[in-house]
Amino acid sequence: MIYFDRVSKVYADNSVALDDVSFSVEPGEFISVVGHSGAGKTTLVKMLLAEEKPSSGSVFFESVNVHQVPSRRMGDLRRKIGTVFQDFRLLPGRTAYENIAFAMEAAGRSDEEIQSDVPHVLELVDLGDKLNNFPDELSGGEQQRVAIARAIVTQPDVIIADEPTGNLDPVNTFEVVQILKKINDLGTTIILTTHNKGVIDSLKKRVITMDRGKVVRDDREGKYIL
Amino acid sequence: MSWTNIKRVFKAGFLDFWRNGFVSFTSVLMMIFTLFVIGLAIFSGVILNTTLQEFREKADMNVYFTTDAPEENILALGESLRALPEVATVEYISREEALAQFRERHQNDQLTLQALDELGDNPLGAVLNVRAHELTQYDTIAGFLKSEEALGEGNPQIIEKINYYDEQHRAAVDRLASITDSAKWIGLIVICIFIAATVAISFNTLRLAIYSSRDEIHVMRLVGAGKGYIRAPFVVEGILYGLIAGLITLILFYPITWWMGSATERFFGGINVFSYYLSHFPFFFLVIVGSGVLLGAVASFLAVRRYLQI
Fold it and tell me: Largest CB tally within 10 Å, which of A33, A65, B117, B137?
């Protein structure tokens, strides 16, 4: 489903973010990518979303080289990938409802679908009563749940969660991870980057360990070993 | 773009305009400033042109004839003047008309009228009022009249006086012509600089407004929204700024031109900016609101483009 083929990324200042990274992800997998800050986790995510281009190598999503997708077709690719970020990245001028509705509008869904699905998905992340709240009226955990709701509402094939618990307390961290597990149980592929040891050890799923831009371990039922 | 998307784009544009109250307020304010300068440029152009026109029309040439000049000779001279390409109009005022005009001008001056009556005979000669297309062409016409006089050698002199030959008058006309010409150019350059500066300021204000939304645009791209779908609400917002600023500017011009109306009429002669504004309102509406809408749309379109490149 996803294939990184000898991907390297060297920035203009000669710092190496990724160094000859190769691995593949099967449909329905739950993968955690772990490593210290600066290990290259976020760059990896940006490569898959075509936010950045590799210096060498290719990234394939469903056999399409994502960096050869023309700009006007990029939306089609990105709608197959739901994204959740450490800093939530909600649209500050829109309510929780409107943030989620925006993802559906971008996917070309009808008003009827939006009206029925958005409250439903907000219920799923336990925010049914916060429909009309703006992001700055929500706690960090609540904002992250809105972001997850936005990522799943269009039923993408993959969800990328880049340090989704980085700004959350242990209770909210646990809740977010439970939601991601539930989504994975329903068949969606999950790629989670984190440096939270507790989260990784409790998941008991595949773990890719990165260090200084290289993949140093790839364990089927891994633990946080660094 | 489908009807549903158009509806969504307009709704998003209106909502963003309303929710980003302060940004909208400053953008509209800057645009009012720009549109106001454009309006002022139009008014200055109109005032300058009308004043010039007025001035040109006043600067005519009066050819006074002797009282005994035969009418047919005068009319013949008038005809030959009319045939000149430099001459715009020739108006013949007969001795009787000249007398009637004199009486009318001095109707409150009993002493003069009495003196005129005592004379018994009409002391005034006929007049030809000649108007050229351009101020500088009076020299040629004067030259022609001189040669006509030469041609009429042997015949009694029928031209008593050509007021153009007054040296002082001529110098004043020449000077005024050059002053108004430079005034026109300097005015045009100053107005162009002003318009360019205010358009640049408006442009930058909108760019800053959209700069503050760059993260939002980034997120929209990552969520999978198409470029057109992201850009359109910003363009709607820009159009709204222009529309509102245009309407406010039009409203502002109403009391301002009313207040300045009679003053401009007295000072520049002939033009009342208030009545000009009212009678040309559709033109002002089109130019002011049109410029606002165009400026808002183009500035937003270009500003968003920068942040869509991911």
Answer: A33
Give the number of other Cβ atoms within 10 Å of residue B58's Cβ: 10
Pairing of strands B127-132, B87-93: antiparallel
Nearest to A51 among B227, B229, B310 (CB): B310
**Does the interface predicted TM-score (ipTM) exceed 0.85?**
no
Q: Where are the domains of chain B?
A: 3-55+175-307, 67-157
The Cα–Cα gap between A28 and A34 comes to 19
List of chain A residues whose C-beta atoms are within 8 Å of the C-beta of residue B223: 78-79, 83, 102-103, 106, 150
* Percent above pLDDT 70 for chain B: 90
- The answer to whether the CB atoms of A102 and B19 lie below 8 A apart is no
Q: State the angle between helix axes of B21-58 and B227-268 in degrees (0 to 180), rounded to the nearest 10.
A: 40
Inter-chain touch A106–B225, beta carbons under 8 Å? yes
For chain B, list residues with pLDDT below 70. Answer: 52, 55-57, 148-156, 164-170, 173-174, 177, 268-270
Integer Rg of chain A from CA: 17
Fold designation for B67-157: Alpha-Beta Plaits (3.30.70)
Of B223, B227, B310, Cβ closest to residue A102:
B223
On the question of pLDDT at A103 being above 80, the answer is yes
User: Is A106 in Cβ contact with B222 (below 8 Å)?
Assistant: no
Determine the Cα–Cα distance for residues B206 and B164; give it in Å rounded to an integer.
58
Name the residue of chain B whose CA is nearest to A99's CA: B220
Instruction: Compute the average pLDDT of residues A26-36.
Output: 92
- Mean pLDDT, chain A, rounded, equals 90
Cα separation, A102 vs B226, whole angstroms = 12
B225–chain A nearest CA distance, Å: 5
DSSP A130: -
Chain B positions touching A150 (Cβ under 8 A) are 223
Q: What is the pLDDT of residue B251?
A: 95
Distance from CA of B204 to the nearest CA of A (A): 22
Report how far residue B72's alpha carbon sits from residue A176's, in angstroms, rounded to the nearest whole number. 109
Interface of B with A in 184-243 (CB under 8 A): 215-216, 218-227, 229
Cβ of A90 within 8 Å of Cβ of B19? The answer is no
Alpha helices in chain A (DSSP H): 41-48, 74-78, 96-106, 111-124, 140-152, 170-185, 197-203
Asked whether residue A128 carries a pLDDT value surpassing 80, the answer given is yes
Contact assessment for residue A140 and residue A87, using Cβ atoms and an 8 Å cutoff: no
Enter the pTM of the model.
0.72
**pLDDT of B155:** 61
